[in-house]
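Lab notebook, bench 4. Continuing the backlog of folding jobs that were queued last week. Each job is logged with the same field layout so the records can be merged later without manual cleanup. Today's entry covers RiboL-PSP-HEPN domain-containing protein, a 147-residue chain. Filled in by technician R.K.

JOB TYPE: sequence-to-structure
TARGET: RiboL-PSP-HEPN domain-containing protein
LENGTH: 147
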Amino acid sequence: MNNERLGVPVRAEYASAVGLAVYCFAGLEWNAVWCCERIEPGSMEDLADRTAGRVADTLVHLVQGLEHSAKQSDLEKAAMEFRALVGARNNLVHAKPGTAHDGEQALLRHGDQWTIGELEAVADAFAECGNRLNKALDGLLAGRSSR
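JOB STATUS: finished
OUTPUT FIELD FOLLOWS
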């Protein structure tokens, strides 16, 4: 049973692009979780019931309650972007494997193929938003205590 994954008919480059996109979203989501925790310690205590959408909604709500400033505005924009990116993440992880128009194996969502270019673009968007949230952790939220 070892190496069964190697029998899946997908190009390594494609699988790598899928994996990196998923990994970048995971980093983004955890930056969001830590932002929530810095703003309101304990807000993410019950992560078992938290979907990415609920994490995003919690972050937006908490950020909107902060004192308004340029940095708060930047964080709010990043939180709203995270919420929008949850839809792209859902389209990716809920895609179905299949044969694309070019004969290659790919993920398909609503009849549309996730191409390597699209996977790279969404991974970049996830990473960029995650970096903005991480910057807030080191800046605006740095002085706040977390557990």
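OBSERVATION: The chain has a mean pLDDT of 91.
SIGNED: R.K.
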